[in-house]
Design brief:
Number of strands: 12
Number of helices: 7
Distance between the termini: 12 Å
Length: 240
């Protein structure tokens, strides 16, 4: 049995580890990070060339099942995977870590896009901790605020005029996030609802400091695609 894991996430690496030695696993990474953490097993890096390219690759490599374990905001590849799997009549499962849920004391502002997040900054302060990754910063390019942009690799232009870049990779600690908010005098945090524990400490630090958080809602999983919440659930689906 050959399983294609569309990955790059912590969950995708864990899933590859659970399946390694039991079935053939190929993990596909988009190649957007310069030095990605590689899973065990076979790995391919780069795009497929859209739906037709993915269908052709699956047929040429005798893929029996596909797990979409991409980032919750990798909307294009998720919809391409759904269309390709339906065309090729290959079973597809989405592996999605649960989203974050606000708790008592949280001051969250939910928005539907990065553009809405930029508009939501009005009146929330001048110093922004932007943790949405290196892509999509054009949405904030016209904002007058000062931005601390944290990403694994250097962000793409255009960026806000007043920007400081912090190159770092999670998981992040609560003490580290507290220090960033205090030392950089952060007024507001902007994040995507990626879920999981690796980047969640900033939410706790913001709650403790009374700092509002603008949270970009994640796009929905393509209609009709079953969802697993953990690598263990996804592995059980494959092995069934």
């Amino acid at each position: 049995m050959h399983v294609l894991v569309l990955g790059g996430t912590t969950e995708a690496r864990a899933l590859a580890g659970l399946l390694h030695g039991r079935v053939r696993v190929t993990s596909s990474l988009a190649g957007r990070v310069a030095s990605p953490r590689l899973p065990v097993g076979e790995v391919r890096i780069g795009g497929f060339g859209g739906v037709d390219g993915l269908v052709e690759w699956m047929a040429g490599h005798a893929v029996d099942a596909v797990i979409d374990a991409t980032h919750p905001f990798a909307e294009r590849i998720s919809f391409n995977a759904a269309r390709a799997a339906a065309t090729a009549h290959v079973p597809l499962l989405a592996l999605r870590r649960p989203g974050w849920v606000p708790g008592e004391g949280d001051d969250w502002r939910s928005v539907g896009s990065l553009e809405e997040a930029a508009k939501a900054l009005d009146g929330l302060g001048d110093r922004v901790f932007l943790t949405t990754g290196r892509m999509g910063l054009a949405a904030f390019a016209a904002c007058p605020q000062w931005f601390l942009v944290r990403s694994v690799d250097a962000p793409d232009a255009p960026t806000p005029a007043r920007t400081e870049v912090l190159l770092d990779r999670g998981p992040f600690t609560l003490d580290g996030e507290r220090e960033i908010l205090a030392r950089r005098r952060i007024d507001v945090v902007v994040t995507k609802d990626s879920g999981g524990a690796a980047t969640a400490p900033k939410l706790t630090a913001a709650r403790e400091a009374g700092v509002p958080v603008v949270v970009v809602r994640r796009p929905p999983v393509p209609e009709g695609v079953p969802v697993a919440a953990t690598p263990e659930e996804a592995a059980a689906w494959v092995l069934r």
